[in-house]
């Protein structure tokens, strides 16, 4: 079996376990809930076919839903994240700079590019997740505050994880 596939399987398992065993139990003032598991979708290679991206997004969210006892909320939000990812990549990158087998990582593309990419996708994911969770616009500003605070912590955790797992050149 390809070592790259094994690396992604291990990443999937580790991120889901960190999410359901540790991060799901962190709630600061009811406003901050970090969702590190989306890092899996963020770091898939640029050449990942869209159908596979959507399927992996759905299955990843479904895994978190099963262990978190939520009813499809994470599956929907992560599928949405996988759906908009190619558009965000095209928005912030020129096509000739990116290689199809390259994965979006700080070590490969630099901090500024990865930070913009992460902020846009994490905010989109969290907006979708939290508003589908409450399924109303009542308490709009409270939900928006949850989105902003949770996104900030998630982005910090993603950036830290990128530096921890960075390959030395």
UniProtKB/TrEMBL annotation:
Keywords: Membrane, Transmembrane, Transmembrane helix
Positions of transmembrane segments: 6-23, 35-59, 71-92, 113-132, 144-164
Name of the protein described by the UniProt record: Rod shape-determining protein MreD
């Amino acid at each position: 079996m390809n070592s790259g596939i094994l690396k992604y399987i291990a990443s999937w398992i580790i991120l889901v376990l960190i999410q359901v065993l540790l991060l799901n139990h962190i709630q600061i003032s009811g406003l901050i809930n970090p969702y590190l598991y989306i890092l899996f979708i963020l770091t898939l290679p640029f050449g990942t076919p869209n159908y596979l991206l959507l399927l992996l997004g759905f299955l990843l969210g479904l895994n978190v839903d099963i262990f978190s006892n939520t009813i499809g909320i994470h599956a929907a939000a992560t599928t949405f994240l996988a759906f908009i990812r190619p558009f965000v990549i095209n928005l912030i990158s020129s096509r000739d700079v990116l290689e199809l087998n390259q994965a979006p990582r700080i070590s490969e593309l630099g901090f500024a590019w990865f930070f913009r990419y992460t902020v846009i996708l994490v905010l989109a994911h969290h907006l979708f997740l939290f508003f589908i969770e409450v399924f109303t616009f009542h308490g709009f500003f409270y939900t928006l505050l949850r989105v902003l605070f949770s996104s900030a912590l998630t982005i910090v955790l993603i950036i830290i994880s990128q530096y921890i797992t960075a390959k030395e050149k």
